[in-house]
Amino acid sequence: MRILRVCNNNVAVVLSEDGQEMVVTGKGICFNRRNGDELDESKVEKRFLPEDKTVLNRVEELLDTVPDVYFTITEEIVAMIRRESDLELSENIYITLMDHICLSLEREKRGLVLQNPFLMEIKQIYRREYALASKARAIIERHMDVRISDSEVGSIALHIVNASMNHDFDVTMRAPRLIATILEIIRVRFSIEFDETSLHYERFMRHLQFFVKRVLDKRESQENADTMLYRLSLTEYPQAADCASKIALFIEMNYKAKVTDAEKGYLAYHIANVVRDVRPNAFDSPTAQPA
Predict the structure, then answer these.
(1) Which residue intervals define the domain PRD in the entry (predicted)?
(2) Is-above-0.90 flag for pTM?
(3) Considering the chain, what is the average pLDDT of its residues?
(4) 1-49: CATH, from 1.10.1200.120, 4.10.320.10, 2.30.24.10, 2.130.10.10
(5) Domain range 51-165, its CATH number among 2.160.10.10, 1.10.1790.10, 1.10.3290.10, 1.10.3720.10
(6) Do the domains 169-278 and 1-49 match in fold?
(7) Residue 93: what are its φ and ψ, rounded to 5°?
(8) pLDDT for 240-251, tens place per residue?
(9) Which of the four CATH numbers 3.40.50.300, 1.10.1790.10, 3.30.300.30, 3.60.9.10 does domain 169-278 have?
(10) φ and ψ at 205, to 5 degrees?
(11) Is 214 within 8 Å of 220 (Cβ atoms)?
């Protein structure tokens, strides 16, 4: 294992025997070592070998400017997420999360806590990601002896969402407010409180995350999708179809994005299911008129 570049005493970019370039870490592994030297593999504690070479290059650049402890923290957080969930994470999370944790911790150590305006929505909409971010807080505290704020936990949750859904981060930041508005439209229309423990609710939340991504990311469209579910909703649960149409109108007026009939059909289907969770007979009369 040959050193290509010494980052600091504990981190190096190396070339393995099989010609793979990677970042390796270990206490004092680069002490008195220079570029081109052989590295004692027995001292290597962790190896970072992303499939995307640009991720490796960007991590290298970050390690020039931030203490290597942030790389260690990021690695542990990503490993924890992969161990405790089925989320498929983009390798870019190593870049975005390490950079974010470094900047935010420097602020919080100085007592500068930035309030997250979407914290309530994040806790409600991204419950799984927020729970994982709370575990990330414990990892950060163990390494840095700093307990980050709930607002910061919410920001880490958004980074997890971003990495698992391949969003632009701007979309990830704007999504919670729109999802919360959609839920409020449904709540008011049917005078209900959701059963947030139900499988239908969990599936609906997952659907809304992808739906909102489509709305906020104007590059995606479903113009040619099948409208069968929408046509079915008009006869089987017209109140849900009407609610979906109201949501579509709100989005078209406020976000200048067209909601297709196919998308309205899926919305109506999920709306009907979450309403039935708390009002089982809500759609027993298919001829009931929309409000």
Answers:
(1) 65-170, 171-281
(2) no
(3) 89
(4) 2.30.24.10
(5) 1.10.1790.10
(6) no
(7) -60, -30
(8) 999 999 999 999
(9) 1.10.1790.10
(10) -60, -40
(11) yes
Task: Tell me, rounded to whole angstroms, the distance of Cα 14 from its chain centroid.
Answer: 31
d(CA 119, CA 182): 17
* Mean pLDDT calculated for residue range 39-58: 88
- Name residue 2's beta-bridge partners: 15, 38
b/e string for 23-47 if b means 16 or more Cβ within 10 A? Answer: bbbbeebbeebeeeeebeeeebeeb
Q: How confident is the model over 164-208, as pLDDT tens digits?
A: 987 678 888 889 999 999 999 999 999 999 999 999 999 999 899
b/e 206-218 (16+ beta carbons within 10 angstroms → b): eebbebbbbbbee
Cα torsion 141, 92, 14, 103: sign:
negative
What are the backbone angles phi and psi of residue 94, rounded to the nearest 5°? Answer: -60, -35
CA dist 241 and 179 (Å) reads 18
Secondary structure (DSSP) of 116-169: -TTHHHHHHH-HHHHHHHHHHHHHHHHHHS----HHHHHHHHHHHHHHHHT--H
At which residue do the structure tokens 């260690």 appear?
Answer: 72
Distance set, CA 252 to CA 178, 190, 284 (Å): 12, 22, 31
Per-residue pLDDT tens for 261-280?
999 999 999 999 999 999 99
Tokens of 120: 């309530």
**50 in Cβ contact with 91 (< 8 Å):** yes
